[in-house]
Each structure stands twice: as C-alpha cells, then as structure tokens.
Amino acid sequence: MHTNTGHDASTGHDAGCQGLDDCPVYILAGGQSRRMGRPKALLPFPDVLLLLVLVDRLRVASRCVYVVCSPVGFSAASDAVRATLQATLSDYCFNGNVLVDPIPNGGPLGGVACAVEHTRQLGRPRCLVIPCDMPFLTTTFLARLASAHRTAPAVIPFTADGQPTGVCAAYNVAILPALSAFLRQGGRRVQDFLQTIPAAPLPFPDYADLPNADRLLYNLNTPADYRQALLWQQEAPPENSLSDDSYGQPR
Taking the C-alpha atoms of 40, 41, 43 and 44 in order, what is their torsion angle to the nearest 10 degrees? Predict the structure, then answer.
C-alpha cells in the first residue's frame, strides 16, 4: 500500500466524536459469512443483534449512519438476509438509511464503492466505512480515524500486529474514478485496490492510548472469534457501547 508520510490526526472534542459530525458512516452488512456459517449482522451480541449494536452506538455521534446490504438477486440466501435486515432496521426506525450495493459479486469493495458514491451524492468530501463484524469499535476511535489525514484518498488503520484493515477505513470521494475503473476491470479485493492509491496509514501507536485499543479492530470471521468476543464483552463492555439509555431500543 502506498502511504503518505504526513500526520494530522486529532482526538476530537471532549466527547471524542467531533470528527464524526460531518462524516457519513457506512456499515457493510452484505457479506456471505461463509466461515461463520450464518449472517454475522444477525448474531446476538449478547442479546442485541450485532448490527444494531453498531447502529445504536454510531447514531449517538453521527447524523449520517447507513447500512449497505448485498445486491438484489445476488443469491437467494443474500436476498433473504437483506430482507431480514431491512425488516429489522425498519422496526428500529432506520429503514430510510439502508442502501443496496448495485454491484453483483462486488464483495466488500463493492460496498465501499456504494458508500463513496452515496457520499458524493450527499455533497460530503469523505466517509467512514466499517464492517458489521467489529463489535468493539468505538465512536472515539472512529472520530480519530475521521480526523486523520483529511485530504488523503484513504486512511487505513493498522492493528497492533501491523495488519491493515481496509474494510474499516476513511475514504475520500476523489477515489471514485479509480475505484470504478478497478471494479470494471474485475478487481474485487480491498487490499489490492489500496495498492493503487496513495492511502495514508493510521498506525497502532496513533490510537494505542484508547481503552482496549488492541481489540478495537477485532473482527468476527469464525464461530471461535464470536465466542471470544462474547467473553470479552462480558468482562468489560467497550467504551461508549452503552452510551445512551435507549441502547438496544427502537427510536
């Protein structure tokens, strides 16, 4: 991945959320969850659906939160999951913020393209894209990500062990032509696309001061990952995961 060397990350205002005020956030919920064996967005965590945990947490801090679902007709299974998600979010007073990725077989990168195009339509310069299977993400961390390297084509956080996480990243709308061309040429891997643009890093030391920093980017790929996350959640719920008295309730 090409990276810029400049650094201008900030921590936002006292609530840690200032960087999210003007930055739409998109939750990718269209994956097929093959390794998990069931839709990750619909996993109980522990007694609220995983997707709704993130939706509720983000709505405290951002006016613009959206869920990106799989393409219509992608598969019978994905159609059923999307219908369930849309019904659930409608019951949760969130039905107007559900987007359907128009790119069949686009994978997470298709979801990124959908999010960036929608951000352009909103007239915003950049957005955050996150997966539905990172239950320990906090608004403080996302505000820091949104505030870093504001003019970079993308900002990619790195885990404590140095791994980039392109499915949790900030993207500038200026990447749309390159991203669209990459998808037209058959490109589907997020990391492969990031090799083609001068993305800026958000290395672990830049957010290591945050509570449970080494868990912020933990994602659930397998049943074992899910069990581990539930254990951690029972030990110590993530910062601001219960930041609102109406957590887990429709608004």
Answer: 150
Q: Which of 134, 119, 148 is nearest to 6 (CA)?
A: 148
The pLDDT confidence band at residue 236, using thresholds 50, 70 and 90, is: low
CA-to-CA separations, 229 to 50, 58, 162, in angstroms, rounded: 11, 19, 20
CA distance 49 to 92: 11
Q: Which amino acid is at 80?
A: A
Verify cis geometry, omega within 30 degrees of 0, for the bond prior to 46. yes
Residue 36 CA to residue 26 CA, distance in Å, equals 22
Retrieve residue 247's tokens. Answer: 């957590």
- Residue 171 phi/psi, 5° resolution? -130, 135
- d(CA 5, CA 2) in angstroms, rounded, equals 10
Pairing mode, strands 154-157 and 98-100: unpaired
3-class DSSP assignment, residue 203: coil
Q: Is the pTM of this model over 0.90?
A: no
Distances (CA, A) of 175 to 40, 94, 178, 179, 199: 28, 28, 5, 6, 10
- pLDDT band for 104, please (50, 70, 90 cuts): confident
3-state secondary structure of 170: strand
| 235 to 28, 226, 227: CA distances (angstroms) | 27, 14, 13
